[in-house]
Amino acid sequence: MDATHKKYLRMNKLPHIWCPGCGDGTIMGSFIRAIDRLGYDKDDVAAVSGIGCSGRITGYLDFNTLHTTHGRALAFATGVKMAKPRLKVFVFMGDGDATAIGGNHLIHSCRRNIDITAIIFNNNIYGMTGGQYSPTTPRDKYATTAPYGTTDPHFDIAKLCIGAGASYVARGTSYHAKMLTDLIVAGAEHKGFSVIEIITHCPVNFGRRNELETPVDMLLWQKDHAVRMAKAEKMTADELADRFIIGELHKADIPEYVEEYDRLIERVQRGDTGRG
Amino acid sequence: MANAKLLQGNEACVFGALAAGVRFFAGYPITPSTEIANIFARELPKLGGKFMQMEDEIASMGAVIGASCTGVKAITATSGPGFSLKQENIGFAAEAEIPCVIIDVMRYGPSTGLPTKSSQGDFMQARWGTHGDHAIIVIAPYTAREAYRETGRAVNMSERYRIPVIILMDEILGHLRERVEFKEEDVVTVVDRKGPAPGVPYLPFEDTDDLIPPFAGFGDGYRYHITGLIHDKTGFPTNDPETINQVMRRMNGKLDRYRDEIVKVKYVDVDDADILIIAFGSVARAAEEVVRSMKKAGKRVGLLRPVTLWPFPDKEIRKAASGKKAVIVPEMNLGQMVREVERAVAGEAPIYPLNKIDGELITPHEISDLIKEIL
Amino acid sequence: MAKKNFGITVDRKICKSCGICVAFCPVSVFTTDHDDKAVVTYPEKCTGCRQCELLCPDYCIDVEEIAHG
Ligand SMILES: Cc1ncc(C[n+]2csc(CCOP(=O)(O)OP(=O)(O)O)c2C)c(N)n1
Ligand code: SF4
Ligand code: SF4
Ligand code: SF4
Ligand SMILES: [Mg+2]
């Protein structure tokens, strides 16, 4: 542990509860390095999470932390940001948290373009409840609720968020730890709703059931299947078929929600109702 | 507060909340509560406050709690189906002791029910809608004037005790437009939540003598953890049986400690009555009419009107009901409050339920008919 | 230019034996002990890339450049 860990983590809460080799710990490391680089005052950061293994991250971060209900982290965070805009708000969600039970809040946060950075731990499984399939579990994978393989089609989280209007969308992995820090920094500096989908690994509840026996196997899979944007642009659709692209996928400069509402307040207080 | 006004119950709630310092509303439209959202949308920006129409009631409740975590006074309003959706997050507010107010303008249910018809079917849900033991306060005004004052009181109680407060309105009361003359006692004073004491380490869920831990807003320089998991006084999750027991008893104990401050009951001609009516909300208006007309007819009928529904005013009811010839409990449901009345009265007087579930208000006539039958 | 030297420490108490550092150190600095915990066996090979530090999910590893006297 170095000075960054000691500065941003609640040291008396460590070691964390995550299983050996779980990606969540690695992601938390990348995140605090991002905060360090951003230079935010710890008192000005609010970290909000949902329920799941990933949701436990807020217990370890030495910020204003809010561990909410399953799927609802973005709703709580929206209230935090609207009520105190100077706070830098980060939201941590699992794939089930963000796209199943919380899917509605995710797309509407994208639509509003509220200045929050959403970090989605996509381990393709419900980790905390013991390995049930999630909306991002690929076809023909095994889960405790898919003992014969999944029949559900799955979501592409990044595409979903781009479609819903998020103004910054990036995808990283728990393997590309340095790049992940860069993406979180860029997402946080972007004004508007930023989504960072992290392809991560749950060795215990996904890997073991799906022929990726160890954390190392899972990270090797990420290494072999992730393609950086620049490289992907030179590849054919066939070559990209079972791979995924990492890096900044989408960036748009559109009005941010809190600022727009503040403008409305200013206008109404001047007596201008906008109706001429 | 300007003096005479023509106010709807729903409208009165908004102005009461604003007077108490509410500056954040999040909601989702639903009949018969929608006017509340409409008026907040119009009024809040004028005061520099914020209105949000969220994607659903679950999100609305979440946003209200999030806003309150920063120290801003926050409120939401809904009705039946939306009230059901809010329940999980109301439980979060109870467990994390986050001040917030929820207005439920009752409509007939279950399910989509009768969106435009009145009901008192959420009496039990308001108390026990979320899972687990939890502290919650429920208030039921009966006029627009009282809706103003009681919404203000609800906000203040929530801030003071760190307990979510529910205001149970009903469709009739919400939509009835009446002339309101505000008097001295209607002035809503502003109560702020207690902050951390300077110079001592901050324990966000401290076991203080008054049972109410001091509240620090996000961004105020106290970094701490809020969770819906059962937590110790530092705010972090615990599995230790002794701690769980201690913390949960403190939280729930606030209701007992402050019970007499919270409970509010109004009496009309109760002392020398032979017959006691116990009614709340718009049904109490019909009951008041019965008391008047019966008095003219030389019959001694009194009304006990709980303004606070939960904690249930059992002491007051037992005292008022003891020895009466009959206690009549009219309500627009199949008998919810009457169970509490039975528990409170404990056999000291015969109890007659009067239930109506067709979406129409119980009329004075229906109550007097029952009285005549009993006499 | 002289080759840089690095001091690598593994906090054995908190190592969860996941094998990540062992597998991903490009120059195989680590081996494992009887509990599968990471052991710094060939520190002289270390290039200071910090991949082990970045990937260890439990922040057990510290890599520090050793100043030359
Ligand atoms: C309303 C509600 N439904 C179900 C659950 C049970 N539950 C807890 S975590 C979880 C899924 C976790 O999966 P994910 O969101 O992907 O997070 P992970 O554990 O994989 O990080 C579920 C279903 C709950 N806590 N609340
Ligand atoms: S169950 Fe999976 S996601 Fe949860 S801590 Fe263990 S490895 Fe990580
Ligand atoms: S990566 Fe960390 S936890 Fe895993 S074996 Fe290496 S030192 Fe131990
Ligand atoms: S810094 Fe790089 S070379 Fe050195 S031990 Fe770690 S992974 Fe191996
Ligand atoms: Mg998951």
What does this structure look like?
Chain A is 37% helix and 17% strand. With 276 residues, chain A is of the alpha/beta class. Chain A has a single domain, classed as Rossmann fold (3-Layer(aba) Sandwich). Chain A has an eight-stranded mixed beta sheet with strand order 2-1-3-4-6-5-8-7, with helices on both faces. The radius of gyration of chain A is 19 Å and the shape is globular. Chain B contains 13 helices and 16 strands. Chain C is globular and about 35 Å long. Chain C is built from two helices and four strands; from the N terminus they run E-H-E-E-H-E. With 69 residues, chain C is α+β, with helices and mostly antiparallel strands. The interface between A and B is large, with 38 and 44 residues. One iron/sulfur cluster binds at residues 6, 8, 25-27, 29, 46-52, 63 of chain C.
- By CATH reckoning, the class of chain A would read Alpha Beta
What is Rg of chain C?
12 Å
Mean pLDDT of chain A: 97
Query: What's the structural domain tally of chain A?
Result: 1
* SS-based class of chain C: alpha+beta
Taking the sheet with the most strands of chain C, its summary is: 2 strands, antiparallel
Task: Summarize it.
Chain B is α/β, with parallel strands linked by helices and 375 residues long.
Write the layout of secondary structure elements.
The complex is a heterotrimer of chains A (276), B (375) and C (69).
Chain A: H1 3-8, H2 23-38, E1 45-49, E2 64-67, H3 73-83, E3 88-94, H4 95-101, H5 103-112, E4 116-122, H6 157-164, E5 168-173, H7 177-189, E6 194-199, H8 215-225, E7 226-228, H9 229-232, H10 237-240, E8 244-251, H11 257-269
Parallel strand pairs in A: 1-2, 1-3, 3-4, 4-6, 5-6, 7-8
Antiparallel strand pairs in A: 5-8
Chain B: E1 4-8, H1 9-19, E2 24-27, H2 34-43, E3 50-53, H3 57-69, E4 74-78, H4 80-96, E5 101-108, E6 114-118, H5 123-128, E7 137-139, H6 144-161, E8 165-170, H7 171-175, E9 177-181, E10 225-227, H8 241-257, H9 259-262, E11 265-268, E12 275-278, H10 281-296, E13 301-306, E14 308-310, H11 314-321, E15 326-331, H12 337-345, E16 351-355, H13 364-374
Helix pairs in contact in B: 1-2, 1-6, 3-4, 10-13, 11-12
Chain C: E1 5-10, H1 20-24, E2 30-32, E3 38-40, H2 51-55, E4 61-66
Antiparallel strand pairs in C: 1-4, 2-3
The site of magnesium ion has 9 residues of chain A, from helix 4.
